[in-house]
Specification:
There is one protein chain. This protein has 108 residues and is of the alpha+beta class. It contains three helices and eight strands. It has a six-stranded antiparallel β-sheet, covered by helices on one side. The longest helix has 13 residues. The protein is globular and about 30 Å long. The mean pLDDT is 94.
Length: 108
């Protein structure tokens, strides 16, 4: 599935407005945006995010979002661990939602 280019542009705009420089690579079936050589976030097909967060915050982020809006990411049937969350497209449909998740990724 192709990545959601509109969401990718929104992520790029948000990072640019914060003065953050990034690199982009395609991996994990997503467009990965890297800051300082580390993965920050991935834009998935269908409009979701692969969010890399602080594992200490993961449980709270999941509880706040609810199971329909975020869950621990799965790759090939294997749990990727608490640092990697799949964020549903509805959770980033508006700017406030996208900012919430990018803030969480940037705190890592």
């Amino acid at each position: 599935m192709a990545i959601d280019e509109a969401l990718a542009d929104r992520v790029r705009t948000d990072l640019s407005e914060r003065g953050i420089e990034w690199e982009e690579r395609r991996m994990f079936g997503a467009l990965i945006l890297m800051v300082g050589g580390s993965i920050l976030v991935g834009v998935r097909g269908g409009g979701g995010l692969l969010a890399r967060v602080d594992p200490v915050e993961s449980a709270d982020l999941l509880a706040d979002a609810g199971p329909l809006y975020a869950q621990v990411a799965d790759m090939g049937g294997k749990d990727m661990g608490p640092s990697w969350l799949d964020v549903h497209p509805d959770a980033v449909a508006d700017d406030a939602g996208l900012t919430h998740w990018l803030d969480a990724c940037l705190r890592r």
